[in-house]
């Protein structure tokens, strides 16, 4: 687990990139990711996260064999170049082919263009179980801008899993997602942008951790991607959000401040846990 002494003394600008992913059109999606990275770089962003399966789109079950790639394949090489050109850490949702299996994955690249991590989604939703194999390794990656905990979409609905990343030392949780809805889910049950943003805020609050969630936006197959990408403070405060817009939601993450110390002195949730009651 990390210590505060390794964290940057000043602010780290973090952004969630929101985009419409075109199913099956890797070139178009890479162009959009590159544009987001360039926009983020101009805003001083050091860490950018983009949505789940951002390079391929989500509804590609009939094309998975042709679109899945290894972690060092041509699409990963292009993503590494995008990260290097923008000079930032880049986290991208990706369809991974590995060992004869296909995974819903995230690739994390450093600003020098080196791939730092490959995370495989641990919690598969509904029909995803027919398409993908599940990952089984919670992942926290140490960088010079803090320890980054990686999650994909449905992972965020499991508080024990996010708590595990915090126990492993995560300073910030990244979530690449494509929350989707339709008339039934939205009108009958209220599954909408404010709901998913509240989910992100709750995970940040209950763990006292920074969080950035990047979602898709726009129509895809019979659904609408919800959007509402955001950056959230450890108090659950939404620092930046996008609603249904395309672009980036950027905010400064500050690991050391009098205000944060004052908040943490009150919000002692982790220290006040009683695990013996939860078994």
UniProtKB/TrEMBL annotation:
Top-rank EC class of the record's enzyme: hydrolase
SUPFAM superfamilies listed in its UniProt record: Carbon-nitrogen hydrolase
Chain coiled-coil ranges: none
Enzyme Commission number: 3.5.1.100
Signal peptide: none
Keywords: Hydrolase
InterPro entries linked: Aliph_Amidase/BUP, C-N_Hydrolase, C-N_Hydrolase_sf, UPF0012_CS
CDD domains: nitrilase
Single GO MF descriptor: hydrolase activity, acting on carbon-nitrogen (but not peptide) bonds, in linear amides
Segments forming domain CN hydrolase: 12-255
Statement: the UniProt record of this protein carries the keyword Thylakoid: no
Family the entry assigns: Belongs to the carbon-nitrogen hydrolase superfamily. NIT1/NIT2 family.
Protein name (Swiss-Prot/TrEMBL): (R)-stereoselective amidase
